[in-house]
TrEMBL record:
One of its GO terms (cellular component) is membrane. Its EC number is 7.1.3.1. The keyword Secreted does not apply. It holds the Pfam family H_PPase. This is H(+)-exporting diphosphatase. HAMAP family: PPase_energized_pump (MF_01129). It is a multi-pass membrane protein.
Length: 786
């Protein structure tokens, strides 16, 4: 914007100073969290400088990279412009609902949110707002908009770095595989650090601002244990943006990919990413807006939802167990923020453990990139176990149950083991070194139909192990929490749900490193495209192909990781929803009876929503891909010189088709996801009113949420794994197996890959977000269903 750099620097320092002042007024734990986040941002700046200092290679590479960057940034601006308009509209709706909703007994008893005046820097500032409903509306809307903004920034950062790193990876691949790997990993790490850091610092700023502004824990005002419920809007804002980013980006990337593959590979017999294919730039742009930007927003939203739900449960448990004292309740509430602060530290160590070799000549044998990434992951896991134990002893030790912290440390260990198991299971089903993908590749030798049958059956089978892992993790962590020794006033054990929350934190305690491995995938994919388009020697393409195949596996593992954490986080948010309904209804709300017909119907509607949403997401890709196929065919017919390199294809036309279609098609499934739970809740609320069942609306929504989560987890596992396996079966054949590129077997594998594209990159990842969005939207809208 042309602002002087010094002015910016002074403003930045003032902002940091203000943040630390508010943090110091809140808790020393918050100051610790702020410090770690700011150090991690500085580390990410170092990584960016390191990546951008690498050379961009010859002019033909730079030219292609510029075209990709322009396409990605153009689409991003338009897409986020549309999303921001919808976010403001929804904020207005939320504001109106909150203005007229009922208040909880706690709010009335202490007029918690209607403080006559907040205290800022020792001065009382008079507010014109005196009504708890109005203040609550402002707080929820502000949290919603901040969550949406931070989610958008997380997505933008993912794309910003990938469109600049891709050409540097291509250039490095001309020298050595190890250097190319290191650049791709560090570029991905920049994005991962910013995404996780933003999620943590955003919630920490919101929490400490509300703490100081509302004079929490002062006589006659709000208790600190009730504060986390004000943060729910932040999680909903993050989910809202992530859903549309994932849908729009997923439709863009896969429609271009399917169109390019069907005409280029199958009809014309030209290789992947060939410069003669008119849809190739659209495909490469799609990798950035679909895989980088959307995945950044997706994992940002996962971490935000998990932190908020764990803070709510920590607060509820501290209240029930009467854990008093200045340090203790806030220790339980702020524990998730500390865990993720340590995540930033240990993931940095894991990332730095991947180094370039001293002898980086291309004569040295190519190492397996997966083994190198796996080594870094092992380092991160070991450090995660140590820091998690340290955090639980520091923050969860209480005189009332001296050994409780150890039980919670074991819950964390359950979560970390679960994360590792998920990564391993997904790798087994999607990596072509293992049996399932090789069997799938072999089925291609008998035709297109057998390839599809084998892929679907592999996807269905792949849901079994992850579900067993999630089930064991939920039950064992609940049991460990329940036996921790924390009891309520009546002597009933109460730590069970918080134990599950701690296991979810354990699972996400290496999120920054897992996200790094994920971002590595599309950067390597783009690099391969640039190498092919600029017609580099075959030896360079071999290196980028190897990185791309590993990138496919890491992308699949992250999706497995994301759906596992979504399952656990939804379970926590579901419990938080039941607590909130009980507070508003002023009567216990402990279980949902699915033998009641209306409640059973709610469950059916929840499952139906998942299938209808997946259908609309896949058909959007199919429709857009048809437009791309027709355009590519038209160009090959009208410009016969393209095949002999005498004429240049019109790349911009395909980019324009895909961009406008993606923006148009993302609205319908997105609106379905937001409107469905609200409509069902309101409908059954009215029915309950006339039949004398005041809690009917809330019960039906709870059932819808439960069934939707279960169906969504299974559906997402099926879609993600089947798609990843089809893609890598094709890659396996392209290494020269079963007849290699151009054979009939390869053509059948391309068909399978085409079917798998919308599965693994549009519908599957959108379901992760949908599951958590159903949970956050019901939390925000709970008062409306009563």
């Amino acid at each position: 914007m042309g602002i002087n750099v010094r002015v910016l620097l002074i403003l930045l320092l003032l902002g940091i100073g203000l943040i630390f002042y508010i943090g110091a007024r809140t808790s020393p734990i918050i100051v610790f969290v702020f410090s770690i986040c700011i150090i991690s941002f500085l580390f990410s700046i170092y990584l960016t400088k390191w990546v951008l200092a690498k050379d961009e290679g010859p002019p033909e590479m730079v030219q292609i990279s510029d075209a990709i960057r322009d396409g990605a940034e153009g689409f991003f601006r338009t897409q986020y412009g549309t999303i921001s308009k919808m976010a403001f509209l929804l904020a207005l709706v939320i504001f109106c609902i909150y203005m007229f909703r009922s208040t909880t007994p706690q709010q009335e008893a202490s007029a918690q949110l209607a403080l006559p005046s907040p205290i800022i820097m020792g001065w009382r500032v008079r507010l014109w707002v005196q009504d708890p409903g109005v203040t609550s509306a402002y707080i929820t809307v502000a949290a919603f908009l901040l969550g949406a903004l931070c989610s958008g920034i997380a997505g933008y950062v993912g794309m910003w770095v990938s469109v600049r790193a891709n050409v540097r990876v291509s250039s490095a691949a001309r020298r050595s595989a190890r250097e190319a790997l290191q650049i791709a990993v560090r570029a991905g790490a920049f994005s991962a650090m910013v995404v996780v850091g933003m999620a943590v610092i955003g919630i920490a700023i919101l929490y400490s601002t509300f703490y100081v502004w509302l004079g929490v824990d002062l006589p006659g005002s709000m208790k600190v244990t009730d504060l986390p419920l004000l943060l729910v809007g932040y999680g909903f804002g993050a989910s809202f943006v992530a859903l549309f980013a994932q849908l729009g980006g997923g439709i863009f990337t896969k429609a271009a990919d399917v169109g390019a593959d069907l005409v280029g590979k199958v009809e014309q017999g030209i290789p992947e990413d060939d410069p003669r294919n008119p849809a190739v730039i659209a495909d490469l742009v799609g990798d950035n807006v679909g895989d980088c930007a959307a995945r950044g927003a997706d994992l940002f939203e996962s971490i935000a939802a998990e932190i908020i739900s764990a803070m709510i449960l920590g607060g509820t448990m501290a209240q029930r167990c009467k854990i008093e004292g200045k340090y203790y309740p806030s220790g339980f509430i702020l524990f998730p923020l500390v865990v993720h602060s340590f995540d930033l530290v240990i993931s940095s160590v894991g990332i730095l453990s991947i180094r370039g070799t001293r002898d980086s000549g291309s004569k040295s044998p190519i190492e397996d990139p997966m083994a190198i990434l796996q080594k870094g992951y092992s380092v991160t896991i070991v450090l995660a176990v140590l820091t998690f134990g340290l955090s639980t002893r520091w923050l969860l030790y209480t005189e009332r149950a001296p050994s409780a912290w150890f039980n919670f440390a074991l819950c964390g260990l359950v979560g970390i083991i679960m994360a590792y198991a998920f990564v391993w299971i997904t790798k087994y089903y999607t990596d072509y070194k293992h049996e399932p993908v090789r069997t799938l590749a072999l089925s291609s030798s008998t035709g297109h139909g057998t390839n599809i049958i084998a892929g679907v059956s592999l996807g269905l089978e792949s849901t079994a192990l992850p579900v067993l892992v999630i089930s064991i993790a939920i039950v064992s962590s609940f049991w460990l929490g329940q036996t921790s020794g924390l009891v309520d006033e009546d002597g009933n054990p109460t730590g069970g749900l918080f134990g599950t929350a701690v296991a979810t934190m354990g699972m996400l305690s290496t999120a920054a490193y897992v996200l790094t491995m994920d971002m590595f995938g599309p950067i390597a994919d783009n690099a391969g495209g640039i190498v092919e388009m600029s017609q580099q020697p075959e030896s360079v393409r071999e290196i980028t192909d190897l990185l791309d195949a590993v990138g496919n596996t890491t992308k699949a593992t992250t999706k497995g990781f994301a759906i596992g954490s979504a399952g656990l986080a939804s379970f926590l948010l579901f419990s938080a929803y039941m607590d909130e309904v009980a507070a508003f209804a002023r009567e216990p709300f402990k279980q949902v009876d699915i033998a009641i017909p209306e409640v059973f119907v709610g469950g059916l509607l929840g499952s139906m929503l998942i299938y209808l949403f997946s259908s609309w997401a896949c058909s959007a890709v199919g429709r857009t891909a048809q437009e791309v196929v027709n355009e590519v065919r038209r160009q090959f017919i009208e410009r016969p010189g393209i095949m002999d390199y005498k004429e240049k294809p019109d790349y911009g036309r395909c980019v324009a088709i895909v961009a406008s279609a993606a923006l148009r098609e993302m609205i319908k499934p997105g609106v379905l996801a937001i409107v469905s739970p609200i409509a069902v809740g309101l409908l059954f609320r009215i029915l309950g009113y006339y039949t004398g069942h005041p809690l009917l609306g809330a019960k039906v929504v709870a059932s819808m949420l439960m069934f939707g989560t279960v169906s969504g987890i299974l559906m997402a596992l099926f879609l993600n794994t089947a798609g990843g396996a089809w893609d890598n079966a094709k890659k396996y054949i392209e290494t020269g197996a079963l007849g290699g590129k151009g054979s009939d077997c390869h053509k059948a594998a391309v068909t399978g890959d085409t079917v798998g594209d919308p599965f693994k990159d549009t519908a599957g990842p959108s379901l992760h977000v949908l599951i958590k969005m159903l949970a956050t939207i019901t939390l925000v809208m709970a008062p409306v269903f009563l």
